[in-house]
Amino acid sequence: MPELITPTGQLHSSWLAARDEWPPGAHQDGTGLRLAPDADLASPAAFSAWVEQLKQ
């Protein structure tokens, strides 16, 4: 059974792989992407900052 875990910056590569399964420009409900409209989430530092923002 899948287990929910607290997000961290260490999940960057798996998050990128999951993101890339979606068509470009597709809306992804519940992702929080609207909170990082200008962030380059391919950058590990930007991704980590975004994750911390989501955890707030």
Layout of helices and strands:
Blueprint (H helix, E strand, L loop, with lengths): L11 H8 L24 H12 L1
Keyword list:
globular; 36% helix; mainly alpha; 56 residues; 2 helices
Structural class: mainly alpha
Approximate strand percentage: under 5%
Note the total helix count: 2
Determine the fraction of residues in helical runs and give it as a percent range: 25-40%
In this structure, how is the largest beta sheet organized? Answer: none
- The whole-angstrom Rg is 11 Å
Number of strands: 0
Question: N-to-C terminal Cα separation, in Å?
Answer: 27 Å
Your description of this structure?
With 56 residues, the protein is mainly α. It is 36% helix and 0% strand. The protein is built from two helices and no strands. The protein has helices at 12-19, 44-55. The protein is globular. The chain starts with 11 loop residues before the first helix and ends with a helix. The model has no long low-confidence stretch (mean pLDDT 88).
